[in-house]
Specification:
Number of strands: 0
Strand content: under 5%
CATH architecture: Orthogonal Bundle
Structural class: mainly alpha
Number of domains: 1
CATH topology: c-terminal domain of poly(a) binding protein
CATH class: Mainly Alpha
């Protein structure tokens, strides 16, 4: 059986690992062992934060809605309460987008709900 030298494959994997950590600080961007550890941690955080991102955006929509409603004499909780009682099916994402980009339209929506 012929002898197999593994230099090219190990160089290729090392090159790919270091390509992934380009821009990281200190030894994480140059040393293979630290780079592998950094990739593992980054992957864990990315997985967890993909889930957390949904809640972050929901909180952002809440803040945007509340900021748009205060000058109109309403609070977020009272607004959402009246929406649910009147069976309006606009979600928070759409409402915050309307409030941010088209304040006149949002004002009309609030007036029809009051």
């Amino acid at each position: 059986m012929a002898r197999v030298k593994r230099g090219t494959t190990s160089l290729k994997t090392r090159k790919n690992v270091l390509k992934q950590v380009k821009g990281y600080n200190f030894g994480r961007s140059t040393k293979e062992r630290q780079a592998r550890e950094a990739i593992a941690h980054a992957g864990n955080h990315a997985f967890a934060h993909r889930r957390r991102k949904k809640g972050d955006f929901r909180r952002l929509w809440t803040v945007k809605l509340n900021a748009a409603l205060r000058p109109l004499g309403l609070t977020y909780s009272k607004f959402i309460d009246t929406l649910t009682k009147k069976n309006v099916s606009l979600d928070r994402k759409v409402l915050s987008e309307i409030a941010h980009e088209q304040p006149e339209t949002f004002k009309r929506i609030v007036e029809t709900i009051k």
